[in-house]
Amino acid sequence: MAFAVSTSLGHAGVVGKIEDGSYIGLRQSTTRKLSFSLCRIGVRGHTAIRASEDRSASLKTSGLTNEECEAAAVAGNFPAPPPFVRPRGPQGTPKITPLDLIKRPRRNRKSPALREAFQETHLSPANFVLPLFIHEGEEDTPIGAMPGCFRLGWRHGLLDEVYKARDVGINSFILFPKVPDALKTPTGDEAYNDNGLVPRTLRLLKDKFPDIVIYTDVALDPYNSDGHDGIVREDGVIMNDETVHQLCKQAVSQARAGADVVSPSDMMDGRVAAIRAALDAEGFHDVSIMSYTAKYASAFYGPFREALDSNPRFGDKKTYQMNPANFREALIETHEDVAEGADILLVKPALPYLDIVRLLRQNSALPIAAYQVSGEYSMIKAGAVLKMIDEEKVMMESLMCIKRAGADVILTYFARQAANVLCGMK
């Protein structure tokens, strides 16, 4: 056994190398009580063995004062450092000449502390808007295509859900009503009934939680007997300007009931400017508009339409919602909405359209929102039930990707579940 000995004031340090390539370190304190620290570093891993006559002595200093330690350092008497041993690769690792690399990006990823320090994108419960389905009933009704989501009774279940969400830092909500079929008409007049489901719910929420932010959906499809976002002409054409007239009355009714942000999701031309003018004419200058700027005619909306029973009675929505194949068209909608006075621009769906989220982020200084829609939510839930994916990890990764693409606000049914994770709760 070969020993290398180093000494210092009041200390003796001994390091020995034994046959299998391991090391033994011994330190003798000034009290002459031996305190052994045996570190064995094997070929395949690390095994730590500690034995001590007096454990408290091994955890304490030598007993010297700070001044004595400084004097020893000035005199060149330094305490023995712990032995440095470079960890070995497994048996069979090739012997090579290291690559001549100036840049090694992995250096900034080598530890959790470094990875956290250099993380570019961060999620917070403040980034989430929780969509809430409401109905006239007293009891909460589960939505089959959206596990964990319910049509909430507007008097009771809704308040309980908002309370739980606020408890984990979520203070923004958007309302979607399930309107009784008997109240649906071709012109959607129930949309601006001041005593309708949404206005009543707004007043209740503002009374109970005055500091929350409430977004509302401005569109006719929940109220239209044809299931479309606008008034349908007898030849099947969705009427644009007549629909915008109805949307303005709907937005004003919602603002009157206490909405903080009205969100036209109909994709009619010119509706942002018209709604802004209508709100201002009624004195609602502080009510914001979150425009569904790039809302695509997507197949990912299926579970949502089941939740609200708002499937079109005929045809589809491709004459007003955008073609999923189009990228540049989103710029046209962006420029129009900005010019017309939108306060927030939204992309829907989110994850399949991250390139559109980035496009809006690069072409507008306004806040960007993205809607992680029902199909995205349900796919993650279904994959988790089949044990194909880790639900929590995929959920958080998907939300992080949406934020990374440029979204400031994310509308997601995972809001409360994700906030629990961010708060360290299970």
Automatic annotation (TrEMBL):
InterPro entries: ALAD, ALAD_AS, Aldolase_TIM
Pathway: Porphyrin-containing compound metabolism; protoporphyrin-IX biosynthesis; coproporphyrinogen-III from 5-aminolevulinate: step 1/4
SMART domains in the record: ALAD
UniProt GO MF annotations: porphobilinogen synthase activity; zinc ion binding
EC number: 4.2.1.24
Coiled coil: none
Cofactor requirement: Mg(2+)
GO CC list: chloroplast; cytosol
A GO BP annotation: protoporphyrinogen IX biosynthetic process
Annotated CDD domains: ALAD_PBGS_aspartate_rich (cd04823)
Catalytic activity: 2 5-aminolevulinate = porphobilinogen + 2 H2O + H(+)
Class in the EC hierarchy, top level: lyase
Subcellular location: Plastid, Chloroplast
Keywords, alphabetical: Allosteric enzyme, Chlorophyll biosynthesis, Chloroplast, Heme biosynthesis, Lyase, Magnesium, Metal-binding, Plastid, Porphyrin biosynthesis, Transit peptide
PANTHER family (UniProt xref): DELTA-AMINOLEVULINIC ACID DEHYDRATASE
Family per record: Belongs to the ALAD family.
Function: Catalyzes an early step in the biosynthesis of tetrapyrroles. Binds two molecules of 5-aminolevulinate per subunit, each at a distinct site, and catalyzes their condensation to form porphobilinogen.
Assembly and binders: Homooctamer.
This protein's name: Delta-aminolevulinic acid dehydratase
Originating organism: Spirodela intermedia
